[in-house]
Amino acid sequence: MKVLLVEDNERVTRFVVKGLQEAGHVADHADNGRDGMFLAASEPYDVIIMDRMLPGQIDGLAIIEALRKSGNRTPILILSALSDVDERIRGLKSGGDDYLTKPFAFGELLARLDALNRRVQGSGTQTSLRVGDLHIDLLSRKASRGARAIALQPQEFKLLEYLMRHAGQVVTRTMLLENVWDYHFDPQTNVVDVHISKLRQKIESDSERPLLRTVRNAGYMLTADE
Amino acid sequence: MNRLLRSSAFTLAFSYVAFGIAALVLFAAPLWYAYYVTIQDARLEALRTDTQRLSEVFHRQGPPGLSTYIDNRVGMQIPGERILLLTDSTLHPLAGNLSAWPAVVPLEPGEYDLPVNLSGKDTRAMFVHSVLPGGYNLLVGRDQSLFAPLAARFWFGLAAAVAVLSIAGVVGGLMIRRAVLVRVDGIHHTVQAIVRGDWSHRLPAKAGSDELNTLSRTINGMLDQIEQLLHGVRDVSNSIAHDLRTPLAELRSRLEELSLTRPESEETFAEIDGAVVDVDRVILIFNALLRLAEIDTGMRRSGFVPVNAADIARQAVDFYLPAAELKGVTLSYRGTGATDISGDPVLLAQAIGNLIDNALKYTSAGGGISVEVQALADGKVQIAVADDGPGIPDEEKPKVSARFYRGDASRGTPGVGLGLTLVASVAKVHGGVLELGDNNPGLRANMVISAQSGNATGALQPALVEGRAGAAAAAHNLRMRSVS
After folding, report:
1. Which tens digit of pLDDT belongs to each residue from A100-123?
2. pTM, whole model, 2 decimals?
3. How far apart are CA B477 and CA B475, in angstroms?
4. CA-based torsion, B45, B50, B51, B56: positive or negative
5. What fold characterizes domain B2-150?
6. Do domains B2-150 and B301-481 have the same CATH topology?
């Protein structure tokens, strides 16, 4: 995955670029709005990470708006120290695809970048999803594993659907909260973990191969791979 | 005296007096004009009529007849009523009450209004001069000075009105000053005392509902609110000092110990992981503080949309249900009535989530939590979360919604102590309150919010923005640094 990082803080830049390289990605970097704008417009990137507040005349949101106006559809993740819900909405309205508040865990950033990258590749309307022998029908809202039908509550189905849409990727607890429940706060108890373990019991019986893995310090991943 | 003249009551009184005089003059001027023109015309008309009548006498009886007629008339009339003079063509007087032809009156026939000297007295007179056949001159006139007292009375009346108006204005100004400005001065002194830092002062407000009493009561309400906020800020500083310093102190000692002892890499990594957890806890507290600042400054009201409180509560119950089951606690939902409100779904979800979170924390296995949403009769919606845990002692109830307050019983359980504060703030921004009651046993948290969310404290918000925005900016800077 080829990533452009537009960020003026050196520490954050080093932390993100190093992390991306270790994860096997290519990262370009611009430390001001003008260079960022130039790179974003001239090079093909899979994902752009855009800091909200940049030195110089152009700020992050202005770049995003300019790119979108010129027809550039590269997924953009907005990085910001402004955490207000309103700020988040403004960021997404300007053309950003996701919004992450500083400070953040690298795992959270990587998971979101992956999700943005795949979203572009795997877009199009699907009526069913399959991961290994786990299958869900999006129209009849039914799930099955091999020949075994799995009874799911509506909420569990929504959770499983999100995991299956992001199969092979790490999804964080925050991503699940935002996308499955539309909650924008941290519940203090480990409610998401409980939901996952309940879902896990339903989709993985003792004799079946585990599909839903816990990724340490990051979140969960649904995958059929070994 | 100088101060008296500068007071706004006098400015006000003077403007009214000036306005009154202007109105009086505007009223009197056309009146005077109409009066003057009408009277003047009537007088002239009277002189013309007399001239006409005398000419007829002349035509019928000739110069001697007219002379006799004029002399008779002069003899009968009250003094000064008419000036009458008949002369021959050489201006030699034949009859009348003037001894000679007045020099200022031209020899051409016509109507004149001129200053003239009549028998040694300077005056102004109106004349009609006609020339009769044979060169006889007939002069009929009227001494205008006889009307002077009338004009004088008019001007005197006007002057008297102006004087009365001025005196009334000054007295009125004094009375306004006594009645109103003395009270305004009181407000001024009170506010000055408060500016100096003495928050015990309040404006004198009587029971009446006149503007000043209403204003005083409103300002007193504002002062109460500000004082409460000041205490809040002080409490926050203390609480931040405690609750934020604790994880920071842990973090610091952890890192310093690492730096000093340089342990095996395995142990170092474990310590670093622990340090990240410490930082995450600090971030959690910051996020909670920022969210509170965001709510309290009223910024989130832009996020108000029509929502159904019952739907939000039901979804929250669904969300927490697996966690409750795991703990062996029953979590039930009950909703009655129309619960459509105007509100912020993000905040309401967080508030209800916090209440359930809280209830789960304090309820032990076998216990039960119930979430009830119902429409109240007065157009409000009540969201209640009740548990059968240990509850909160009455004396602690007012304190739990203060920032960072954590009951003694809760020390050692996770949480940053901002949960109920946030719920209270969310309730407030929705025009409602958070009430903590007894569930016998357990706690019953009642969030009563207004369906239309007319914010009762809306007018006060601008005062709060500055302080809270400052806090938010400070927190923001810290966050920037902590990510570096």
Report:
1. 988 888 888 999 998 888 876 655
2. 0.60
3. 5
4. positive
5. Beta-Lactamase (3.30.450)
6. no
Chain B residues closer than 8 Å to A153 by CB:
318
The yes or no reply on domain B211-294 and CATH 1.10.287.130 is yes
Chain A residues close to B298, C-beta within 8 Å: none
What residue type is A206 in one-letter code?
Answer: D
Q: Where are the domains of chain B?
A: 2-150, 211-294, 301-481
Residue B212 has a pLDDT of: 79
Using CA atoms, how far apart are residues B468 and B296, in angstroms rounded to an integer?
Answer: 8
Asked if A126 reaches chain B (Cβ–Cβ under 8 Å), the answer is no
Residues 6+ apart with CB under 8 A from B336: B372, B373, B374, B375
| Amino acid identity, position B218 | T
Helix (H) or strand (E) holding B283: helix B265-296
How does the average pLDDT of chain B come out, rounded?
79
**Set of chain B residues whose Cβ sits within 8 Å of the Cβ of A187:** 319-320, 353, 357
User: Are residues B476 and A104, on separate chains, in Cβ contact within 8 Å?
Assistant: no
Distance between CA atoms of B274 and B258, rounded to whole angstroms? 12
* pLDDT: which is higher, B188 or B312: B312
Per DSSP, the residues of B356-382 read: HHHHHHHPPTT-EEEEEEEE-TTSEEE
Architecture (CATH level 2) of domain B301-481 = 2-Layer Sandwich (3.30)
Distance from the Cα of residue A186 to its chain's centroid: 17
Residues in a beta bridge with B435 = B446
Tokens 């960072």, located at residue: B404
For residues B424 and B434, the answer to whether their CB atoms sit within 8 Å is yes
DSSP for residue B124:
E
Chain B contact for A155 (CB, 8 A cutoff): yes
**Which one, of A163, A165, A180, lies nearest residue A221 by Cα?**
A163
Tokens of B457: 């404290």
3-state secondary structure of B109: coil
Nearest to A191 among B319, B349, B416 (CB): B319
Identify the band that residue B169 occupies on the pLDDT scale cut at 50, 70 and 90.
Answer: confident
Sort out which chain A residues have CB atoms less than 8 A from B415's CB and list them.
188
One-letter identity of residue A212? L
| DSSP H or E run through A149 | strand A148-150
Residue of chain B whose alpha carbon sits nearest to that of A186: B284
Inter-chain CB pairs, A–B, below 8 Å:
84
Based on DSSP, count helices (H) and strands (E) in chain B, helices before strands: 11, 12
d(CA B281, CA B326): 25
Give the Å distances, CA to CA, from A144 to A194, A206, A223, B102.
21, 16, 16, 135
ipTM more than 0.85?
A: no
